[in-house]
Amino acid sequence: MKAPTEIERICIVGCGLIGGSVALALRRAGFRGALTAHDAPGPLQRAIERGVVDRPEASFANGALCEADLLYLAAPIGAILDFLRRHGSQIRPGTIVTDAASTKREICRVVTETLPAGVWFVGGHPMAGSEHSGVEYARADLFDRAVYAVVPLEPGSPWTPPEARFSWLLSLIESIGARPLVTLAEEHDRAVALVSHLPQLLATTLASLLVDPGSDEAPPDEAAEELRRELARRLAASGWRDMTRLAGSSFSVWRDILMTNQPLIGPILARYIQQLQHLRESLEQGDYQALRQLFAEGNQSQRELREVHYRPFEKL
Question: Could you give the angle at the alpha carbon of 40 between the alpha carbons of 37 and 44, nearest 5°?
């Protein structure tokens, strides 16, 4: 799908995996306007050298108004919040501001405290990414067929764009290959606590067991324990690799996600711990009927997930 042609300048704040991939996807879709970027000197220089963006966005450092028609915030959550507080007043009226942060409630709250009247805001979260970070890993097809959460503010908010501009943003998201799904901040954050944030914590915890298995049977010495770990590493096949792939993610990115969504992650994590305890008791008691039921529920969940992702996309 071609990118909408109604804008001439796009500024991307944060030249990492997501920001860089958005820029490449827009070029693939036919956007021929100016692509500027705001970031630290190192990532910014690498983005320019790769041809991801055209040049630095100088307005924020110079104290001037940014003339971009679209401002795409692709930095970590804490950096986005800091950017809005420091530079929100430099965004000109008529600009559409959107973001790619993994949690939405805090972003939406700070938007209402920092953006001038006449600036439009629609939150966003592409459900695509990688355990790698940095513009070096950016690619134009990152968002192909990915669900893209679109999170407007509450109806009637002065920062909510007119219907025509909102539809334009949806078209832009479709042009980079993604499938927009409109939801509200609270519902988004509750859902991703289960399907995104919990898996990250589980993968990280599982991978850590290979560093410290914590066996109840104390090994005779550290050398023997290392031999056990080495044997486990050599026997680890695709199942272990698939389950622990997310353990390669950077805490510098996840720190802000966990901080801003802790109230919703906590109850989901408690529910999972309860399920694990039930699993342990079933094993200890030899209750294989309970285990059969657990496998049946897992099988059903996987079938339903495949049906959702492979049927024609539709709005909720």
Answer: 45
Task: Please state at what angle helix 251-285 crosses helix 288-310, rounded to 10 degrees.
Answer: 140
Name residues whose C-beta falls within 8 Å of residue 316's C-beta, 6 or more positions apart in sequence: 181, 183
pLDDT at residue number 11: 97
Sheet containing strand 147-152, edge to edge, reads 55-56, 34-38, 9-13, 70-73, 96-99, 120-126, 147-152, 179-182
In a domain, 316, yes or no: no
Question: Would you say residue 238 has pLDDT above 90?
Answer: yes
With b for 16 or more beta-carbon neighbours within 10 A and e for fewer, the 254-270 pattern comes to: bebbbebbeebbeebbe
Antiparallel, parallel or unpaired: β 147-152 and 120-126? antiparallel
* Residues listed for the chain: 316
* Residue 48 domain-assigned (yes or no): yes
Same domain, 164 and 261: no
Same domain? For 251 and 281 the reply is yes
Residue 314 scores a pLDDT above 60: no
Q: Which residue is it, tokens 């079938």?
A: 303
d(CA 179, CA 187): 18
172 CA to centre of own chain: 18
- pLDDT, tens digit, 9 for 90 and up, residues 202-237: 999 999 998 875 655 555 678 888 888 899 999 999
Residue 315, domain member (yes or no): no
Helix, strand counts (H, E) of the chain: 12, 8
Question: At which of 183, 214, 246 does a domain end?
Answer: 183
CA distance 2 to 158: 30
Q: Using one digit for the tens of pLDDT, what is the confidence trace for 271-313?
A: 999 999 999 999 999 999 999 999 999 999 999 988 876 666 5
pLDDT band at 29 (very low <50, low <70, confident <90, very high): very high
